[in-house]
Amino acid sequence: AQSVTQLDSQVPVFEEAPVELRCNYSSSVSVYLFWYVQYPNQGLQLLLKYLSGSTLVKGINGFEAEFNKSQTSFHLRKPSVHISDTAEYFCAVSANQAGTALIFGKGTTLSVSS
Amino acid sequence: NAGVTQTPKFQVLKTGQSMTLQCAQDMNHEYMSWYRQDPGMGLRLIHYSVGAGITDQGEVPNGYNVSRSTTEDFPLRLLSAAPSQTSVYFCASSYKGGNTIYFGEGSWLTVV
Fold it and tell me: How do residues A58-86 score in pLDDT, each as one tens digit?
């Protein structure tokens, strides 16, 4: 069975500060990892995904994440956030690259203030 | 190319009523899934399908039925709606050999 734990339910940060949203996973099989963002009253948008290869994954909007197999983590980072990054962020794991049957974390609300 | 289409977008039901949330994709994707999103709970997998005629349960299948008679459609049925099923429902599809998941825009369901 697979599971995902997002370690922070809320992360408040000031504009232009760096941010890290933490995600740990557990799985007995190979994992494929995803980060999604959801803006208020909107659907899900893919930020980035780890399928294989380099453990540092770059995504849209200046976000990046690092896959750490030994620590079973996939933390999301951005060096300088903007007000427009305020949203809810979801980490997810799948047993296949096609993303069938995603298991999501409970989400982290990122609040960026000026 | 419409992608993943969910209907209806909004629905209010009375307790005990039945309804079907429709999900259709025009990309010939083998894989389709249904999720529900509740505050503080993230998205939870209800049912999924890896091809026509094949379905399986996810994390929270109770109270929901699915079938996959065609590749294009994956309807989610609530046979007797309960207030606990008030949620936002998302359908997703993907290609078996690919690595991109397509989500619908969501269906907001309220059970009173």
Answer: 999 999 999 999 999 999 999 999 999 99
